[in-house]
Each structure stands twice: as structure tokens, then as C-alpha cells.
Amino acid sequence: MIPAALRRVRDGTIALPARFAADPANHNLPVMIPHDVGRILVVRLSARGDVAFASPLAGALRRRYPRAHIAWVAEDGAADVIRHNPHLDEVIVLERGAWGRMLRGGRWGALAGAVADFFGALRQRRFDVAIDAQGLLRSGLVTFLSGAPVRIGLGSREGSRCLMTRVVARGGDPRAVSSEYRYLAGVLGLGAGSFPMEIPRSRAEVAVVGRVIGEEGLGGGFVVVCPFTTRFYKHWPEERWSSLIREIRGRTGLGVVMLGGPADRSAADRIVQALVPSGSGGPDAATAPLVDLVGRTTLGEASAVVARCSALVGVDTGLSHMAHAYGRPAVLLFGSNTPYLDPPGPSATILHSGRACSPCRGKLTCGGRIDCMTDISVEHALMAVVGGLAGEPASAAPAAEPGSLAAAR
Hints:
Structural class: alpha/beta
Strand order of the largest sheet: 1-2-8-7-6-3-4-5
Number of helices: 15
CATH superfamily of the largest domain: Glycogen Phosphorylase B
Strand content: 15-25%
Shape: globular
Helix content: 25-40%
């Protein structure tokens, strides 16, 4: 009989109940990483929020294997999240953006050369173990082509399981942040200690942000807003962002800093323009500053802004989640996608529609209205921000009726 604590299926997948992953030292688990391992590779290519969620793996590996060389592969768009992690010996950047430009430009020779150089250099590092913490085909290919003889995949799909020597089924509590990576750490025997996100910034990034805060008059505190994400169904209406920004500045007296990437520039302009009273031809009447940094910072600089804020309010996007790493009060607006629903700390508030169709993860049943996001009013968001600024203690979330709002703190 197979012990209840461990279940193996014929395809090589290992599934471990979540309660065992929390304290693996007390259970007889299969050893997948040798105790004397020399070189470990973690592959989590994207996206920014997911790299942030997975970042505790670096510390867990370092505590278990203090003398190992630990590296991480991330795509260029997300590498800044993990670049300065103190537990990593190196961050290897896969230049997906450059490769895509070569492909679109028909520069086949240059693309082939760049790909060959990348994987040649990766194999030369002679990793003993590679961990695919993403579980997709492209991350599985990177893991396989690293040449590591031991290749461990987390919930490998899209055919990537064929490239692994072991596959760990996804587990953990879906309501908790980073839970699948904590679960993986438990299965790998990395210990049952704390599992914090760690996203330190460089001195140069911190210095740039310090200058901006001084020049813009934000020294007395400011609120960060993160309205933008790559999936339209995770957005909150632009006009509500305009209203929220106006209300934060008027009611709290704090400045507001808006963050986003270059692709969000047009939307940011619309949000700012809506702040101008009709017919005034000038800025709105609020005296607190509004600093629009959308598309004007690096990812590292933007996250350094988050680290200095008094509070943050945002949708399901990487910068919003980074607030947890810095212990900043955060108000998160979730609807069609809910990466977690239990606040990761007493300073976090999650506003989530109680609709039965949420989360649909983009499989919309509302005709594109995104009802779960429009359920969240400006007043809901404002009161949560004010509460976070006041340091209000956490309170349990009431059960939400369909169409009502659940606020978890």
C-alpha cells in the first residue's frame, strides 16, 4: 500500500497533501535534490507578479543549500523583479524581446545565433538540478536545454512534462499568496520556515526615487495607484481611477503617483485628462501633487517607488503585488482573476465581487461588461485606502452575496 502521506501516479507526478508541505521534515519524502548539490537553476520566466510570488524559493533554496551556486532564469521583461535577490549568485536574462524583434524582422541568422549562444552559455554552467517553477512548454524547454541531469517541473503542462525527470503536482491553498511555490518548497524538503517575497532594489534605483520624491514634494507621504495590466478583463474603469485619484488627494492631502509601463501611456493620459474640470483648461483644483510616472521608469525604479509609498491601490498586476514584499498597505481590486483572496498581511485589503462567476479568468459570461470589477465603487476603494493609511486592524471578510462586495483585510 502507498502511504497516505505520499501518492505517486504512474506518470511520475508526485502529489503531496498541503499539510505535509508545511512541515516536510517530519515526513518520509522522496529526495529529489541531493544534499551535496553544487549548482541549482530556477526557471521562472514571467510574468512580473508570478516572479514576485516565486521569489521566496531563492531564500528557501539558500537556507537548505548554503554552499550551492543558485541561479535564476527570467525573461527580460521580468528579470528586474529578481535581479537583486541576495540569495542568488546570478540572474540569467533570456532576451525574449530582442528575439521577438529578430523574428518579426526576418533576421533568422541573428536569431539562430542569439538562441544558440544563450543555450550554449547555459549548458556551460553545468547545473546539477534545474527547477521549472512555471510549468509551461517554453520554461520546460529552457529547463531541458540547461543540460541539468535532474529536472523538476511544477505542474508541467503543454507537453513540458516529457522534458522533466520528475513532476510535482500543483498544490497549496489557492486563497493564499505564493502558496503553490510554498507547496513546491515543502515537497523539495526546503524547510518549513518563513516564505517571504524578497524584491530588494539597487542603490541607484533607490537614489533615483529619492530625488523624484524630493523634487515633486512627496516627502510627507504619497499613495501609489497601479491601474494597468495586460488583460482588459482585469481593469477597473478609467473614469473611476480619475475619481479615486481626485478623492485621495482631496480627502487625505497626500500626493498620488501613477505607475505603469510604456504601453499604458495613452490610458494614463485619459485618466489624467479626466481630472481637469470641464472648461477650466487647467489642472484640477487639488493642491496635493499628482506625479505621472507611467512609462517613465524602469521596473526596478517603479518598484522602488512602491517601497517608499504610504499606501498602494491597484489591480492584479505585478507592481501591486510587490507592495507585500515591502510591507506597504495595499488595496487590491480583484474580479475576473483572483491570484489570492486571503490578505497576505494585516496591511493588505482585497476588494472582490461576490459574483458566482468570479473568477472566470477571462472566460467572460457578462458580455464583456466585467461586472465583477464595476461592482467595486470609488467609495469602496477610497475607504479601504483611508483605512490602510490609518493602520486599521485586520477584520474578517463577510460572506459575499452575488453582486455584493467582499472586503478582506
